[in-house]
Amino acid sequence: MAARRAASSVLSRCLLARSSSSAAAAASPGGKSALLGPGALLRKFGTAPAAAAAATATTTEEPIQPAVEIKYTQLLINGNFVDAASGKTFPTVDPRTGEVIARVAEGDSEDIDRAVAAARRAFDEGPWPRMTAYERCRVLLRFADLIEQHADEIAALETWDNGKTLAQSAGAEVPMLARCMRYYAGWADKIHGLVVPADGAHHALVLHEPVGVAGQIIPWNFPLLMFAWKVGPALACGNTVVLKTAEQTPLSALYVASLLHEAGLPDGVLNVVSGFGPTAGAALCSHMGVDKLAFTGSTGTGQIVLELAARSNLKPVTLELGGKSPFIVMDDADVDQAVELAHHAVFFNQGQCCCAGSRTFVHERVYDEFVEKSKARAMKRVVGDPFRNGVEQGPQIDEEQFKKILRYVQSGVDSGATLLAGGDRAGNRGFYIQPTDDMKIAREEIFGPVQTILKFSHARGSGVEEVIRRANASHYGLAAGVFTRSLDAANTLSRALRVGTVWVNCYDVFDAGIPFGGYKMSGVGREKGVYALRNYLQTKAVVTPIRDAAWL
């Protein structure tokens, strides 16, 4: 139990420990990484011949066949798995090979109508919002127990459909899914209102009520965690849900949704529609029967979601969007520790992380040492089949993302950045890529294993205005990392950085109770913690006169 709590509480703990041991053990690296530093001279470093051969082997050998059955490929509507109204299906692809894993029902506007109707009936007429809060708590707790009982199957599905390592899926993300559901189960019977003293003979009661039907759209990079972050608080508050999965990764959400019904969730409370953004996603955002929207994805798509919500019934929207997070290394840092933490901050989950520390600002006094050690660490990174032990990085999610990352790497070189290592395809099968850093890519979100290492300076004893200004010079404001031994520097930077989360001497700590969200174009509202409950509650004032009151 203690090990499970540690994994679910701090994602970075097990991953950093694992990446350190993998780096130390990787005498023959499984893939090269690419780093770009600001400069006019192109310097491309390759691995030694033996290491290059090992890198090819990890990505060209026959992939391991996951020991899990694909049970659910239909839409979940009103408690039943059903085909799409159109009868259409679409392929979900193994990113290791580009081959089809299964064909999944392709929902569109008609299926969204069916799902919203089921959710509306379940809210207006069904038992879920009328249960005691403790009964809802018990359903969510049973669900968490079932997640743990089926942890191996869930982790295998997540890795197969997404490409992240099995060690990450099984060691961190499935435990975090269960932990998050237990966290919100605990909140279910602790949501209460207030009695407000009035200026006169009135009884003023403040109620917190469920909003109704919540539409939720989750991304492909963390399907299980985003399921938990959205479904958990919505159900704890007594709402019903229509969830649209990402078309790249529909399988794990369908599987865990079946377990939630096995735990006793009434029909229609959770409906899951797989499909594409312009059809199913747009229909959900525009639907007049949806009372609340929550979306995680790119900033550009988030703007469309917000517009569709406004043009329909002005439903409130929570957005968790993109980022270009700064990771600041001060001159008093332990360089070896900073290199490992910065490496994890950007390359975790194949770099497909909204809060990736992809802008690494390093003080000029330690810059050269940091760059050389970062290059060496990146070149030891093991790229290969995510089901194999010791692999640190699997493939990118699909061909579109794979090609986008390579275009960004080339744009960095074209802009005058120095390519220090990698920055190319790994192997000749699937969507494996060698990790990178740059000019244009120092501004825009890449969603890939690309690290930009940028130099800053300040006189000893003076302020840190330059790095604060450069770190804040972004449309994004999701997260930041600060690596320093100085409490004063940590306090100054953590208050000055215009971001929703600042990790000091750590990174990617995602406890269920810690709020997560961004400033500026990184989103609206917060996920996780008590703050997520506010997304799914309405506030109502009830005022009645008091006659012959003994007290006021």
UniProtKB/TrEMBL annotation:
Domain Aldehyde dehydrogenase: 81-542
Alphabetic keyword roster: NAD, Oxidoreductase
PROSITE patterns: ALDEHYDE_DEHYDR_CYS, ALDEHYDE_DEHYDR_GLU
BP-aspect Gene Ontology terms: carboxylic acid metabolic process
GO cellular component, one term: mitochondrion
Domain of life: Eukaryota
Annotated catalytic residues: E320
Example GO molecular function: aldehyde dehydrogenase (NAD+) activity
Signal peptide per UniProt: none
Annotated PANTHER family: ALDEHYDE DEHYDROGENASE-RELATED (PTHR11699)
Similarity annotation: Belongs to the aldehyde dehydrogenase family.
Protein name as catalogued: Aldehyde dehydrogenase family 2 member B7, mitochondrial-like
Organism: Panicum miliaceum
